[in-house]
Amino acid sequence: MTVTQSPDASPTPSLDSRVTPVEPLLAPAALREEIPMSPTAGETVLNGRYEIAQVLNGQNDRLVVVAGPCSIHDPCAALTYAERLSDLARRVSGSLVVVMRVYMEKPRTRLGWKGLISDPHLDGSNDLNSGLRVARSLMVDILETGLPIGCEFLDPLTPRYFSDAVSWGSIGARTVQSQVHRQLTSGLSMPVGIKNATSGHVEDAVDAIVAASKGHVFPGIDDDGVASIVSTSGNPECHVVLRGGSTAPNYGPSDVANALELLGSAGLPQRLFIDASHGNSGKDHERQPHVAADIARRIAGGEIGIAGIMLESFLAAGRQDLVLGRTERLAYGQSVTDACVDWEQTTRMIEELAEAVEAGRSLRRAGAEDTPLLAEAALPATLPALA
Ligand SMILES: O=C[C@H](O)[C@H](O)COP(=O)(O)O
Ligand SMILES: C=C(OP(=O)(O)O)C(=O)O
């Protein structure tokens, strides 16, 4: 068969038959210079990382609460939420380390809006350079309220643009088995929660923690955006997040005990987070308070394996459909991805969790022995020295 080629065809016809023009992406260093972090914001990031690591390794008996919208679509509403959460966080700081969920990248089951970095104008124009600017700028503003930030890392290139602003990272249920994400995690500078797979399998998260704890060498970009060979030293601060599965939740005492046993048999610290949303609430926001109340009751009763909880929460309850290009139709402060609990419910849940931590403490103080949250022997040799 003779293949004829048109005169204006690509000089490499086997390349790019499905790629429309490639455009330049701004460089990470240029973005960081354009939107710098103040010393106060930088201190919030480092304090957040330090406090979360201390809770994870049992040196601090508070509970980490990662709360915020399923996704950020409106920076103004997100900042209003941050200001409220920051006040609440200060009030409960004796019992809880509150981190705001600032999710800028959304992994989709099939198709859908992929988050503020991918499509900041919510109109399908996919203006990634603006998306990176809006995302970093909002993160810096949130840090100024004194709140540390948590987010999911989805694209392997984007962390260089904003990971310096993040105190807690997550690898999601859809990417937990991905080698690319495990390599990425091995080089992240903060504690990272690894979700169980959407199937409910916790083993995948344990495998990812082991893989990410070691150093890797892989392709990436440098601060100038140049394709580079990246070498990492491994991340010893990864932990499981139980998020439920497609057929059942996994926040109950036996689910936690099984996950802790899996961690123990892999030589990992026996502490984990629980996501009150997603598979643990069947994506029904009205079930989240029940999940959080159950966890609060168990913490008050002395259960010690739970280091953190995730809540999907925003100003208004529920969710709404996003029609690309029709943002004037959107209700203020309501999620455009998964349904969230509203601000009033969030306050009640966080206060209840703070009381539970205090009750658990009193129980331990009253006990004949002072039960450590994590036995010294269970700490991995690789844990970094905490200043
Ligand atoms: O947390 C958000 C969603 O659960 C996740 O991005 C998947 O969303 P989808 O199933 O609506 O695509
Ligand atoms: C996508 C998320 O969760 P999961 O990976 O558990 O589905 C999320 O927390 O936004």
Automatic annotation (TrEMBL):
* Organism expressing this protein natively: Streptosporangium vulgare
UniProt keywords (A-Z) are: Amino-acid biosynthesis, Aromatic amino acid biosynthesis, Transferase
**What function does this protein fulfil?**
Stereospecific condensation of phosphoenolpyruvate (PEP) and D-erythrose-4-phosphate (E4P) giving rise to 3-deoxy-D-arabino-heptulosonate-7-phosphate (DAHP).
Give any GO molecular function from the UniProt entry: 3-deoxy-7-phosphoheptulonate synthase activity
Is Ion transport one of the keywords UniProt gives this record? no
Pathway annotation: Metabolic intermediate biosynthesis; chorismate biosynthesis; chorismate from D-erythrose 4-phosphate and phosphoenolpyruvate: step 1/7
| DAHP synthetase I/KDSA domain boundaries | 54-349
Q: Which InterPro entries match?
A: Aldolase_TIM, DAHP1/KDSA, DAHP_synth_1
Bias (Polar residues) = 1-17
Q: What is this protein called?
A: Phospho-2-dehydro-3-deoxyheptonate aldolase
Region annotation (Disordered) maps to 1-21
The signal peptide stretch is: none
From the UniProt record, list the reaction(s) this protein catalyses: D-erythrose 4-phosphate + phosphoenolpyruvate + H2O = 7-phospho-2-dehydro-3-deoxy-D-arabino-heptonate + phosphate
Question: Do the record's keywords include rRNA processing?
Answer: no
Matching entries from NCBIfam families are given as: aroFGH, PRK12755.1
What's the Enzyme Commission number for this chain? 2.5.1.54
Q: State the family it belongs to.
A: Belongs to the class-I DAHP synthase family.
